[in-house]
Design goal:
This protein is of the alpha+beta class. Helix content is about 20%, strand content about 35%.
């Protein structure tokens, strides 16, 4: 039996008895330096970085004599070409399979010569370019949803029965996506209907839908970016639930000859808001990361994120990118402390 038909039958019964980024990224995937200003770059976890160019755009379009390049990575380490880092003879750098600890400051010093041929005079010029690279991942989506149903009375067991049946129907509707309904609640209110100048009892039902039903890890299929899969599933779940309530409105107002049960879905009452959360070690900061405002960006040194909150918290003792705990917090109130 279709979900809308099942709920319709229940409602009739109840009546009868009472849901990589950079502003300087060009079309070829190259990012040029900018003299005096670090360039911020955001690389999705486990993806390759864009190609960093050890020149500004003006210099790249100008003849350069005897150029040499020196790349320095996070923690002031000199970078060389290896399985993780690719550096070409022309000073282009790319980082493969980007991870949290690879975040940080990458700088390149370009040395080149200006030559006055008529007097054979050479002058060495040095330019330093800085790139701040941050790992990021997409946020995990969930949806806060709200609907309203009319009811005969705010008192009685039938409101609870409707609430339980509705939750079960919605869970069954999205169970194959390994999504489920969490934190459901309802309250009954008296609502004045302007057209009829009368009070109507209505159940205001709220719930959240997330993609982490028991066994959700099985959808990952060894994917390192599982939030891409879970986010696709939760979008499908949202669409199914929205369609379910749309069918409720159609059923009650078009298929029943304008006769509706006392307990029924209130047309146009369905509301949905997306809620984002970040994995531990990541958070959002629109001020610091305006070019990646919707991203969960790796927590910088001096901050951490221990859970699925949406922001990184201050912790002066963390010195790494992607901290999931704060040593000061972890060592606090240990047994034996005075």
């Amino acid at each position: 039996m279709q979900a809308w038909a099942l709920l319709s039958a229940v409602l009739w019964y109840l009546t009868g008895v009472g849901c990589q980024r950079s502003s300087l990224l060009n079309k070829k995937g190259f990012v040029f330096g900018k003299i005096g200003h670090p360039v911020k770059i955001y690389v999705k976890l486990h993806q390759n970085s864009p190609v960093l160019i050890c020149m500004d755009l003006n210099r790249a379009n100008t003849e350069t004599v005897d150029p040499t390049y020196l790349w320095i990575g996070p923690k002031e380490k000199t970078l060389t070409d290896n399985s993780r880092i690719s550096i070409t003879e022309t000073g282009k750098l790319m980082v493969r399979d980007f991870l949290e600890p690879l975040s940080g400051l990458y700088s390149c010093t370009l040395s080149y010569k200006t030559v006055k041929a008529e007097i054979q005079e050479e002058t060495t010029i040095k330019r330093r370019y800085e790139f701040m690279i941050f790992a990021y991942r997409e946020p995990d989506y969930s949806y806060q949803m709200a609907v309203r149903f009319t009811t005969k009375s705010c008192v009685g067991r039938y409101n609870d029965l409707l609430f339980r049946v509705l939750r079960k129907i919605l869970d069954n509707l999205i169970s194959d996506l390994l999504c489920h309904v969490v934190e459901p609640s309802y309250k009954c209110h008296f609502v004045k209907i302007p057209e009829h100048s009368l009070l109507q009892n209505e159940l205001f039902i709220a719930f959240r839908v997330d993609p982490f039903a028991p066994g959700w890890e099985s959808v990952c299929n060894d994917s390192v970016d599982c939030e891409d899969i879970t986010n696709r599933n939760i979008l499908k779940a949202r669409d199914r639930i929205e369609e379910f309530f749309r069918s409720q409105a159609y059923t009650f107002y078009h298929r029943l000859n304008n006769t509706v049960p006392a307990m029924h879905f209130v047309d146009h009452s369905f509301q949905v808001v997306r809620m984002d959360s970040c994995r531990p070690g990541f958070g959002k900061d629109e001020g610091l990361h305006s070019n990646c405002a919707s991203c969960c960006v790796v927590c910088s040194p001096g901050t951490f994120s221990p859970d699925v909150d949406v922001s990184c918290q201050i912790c002066a003792s963390t010195q790494v990118y992607g901290a999931k705990s704060c040593p000061e917090t972890s060592n606090k109130n240990q047994p034996g402390d005075d």
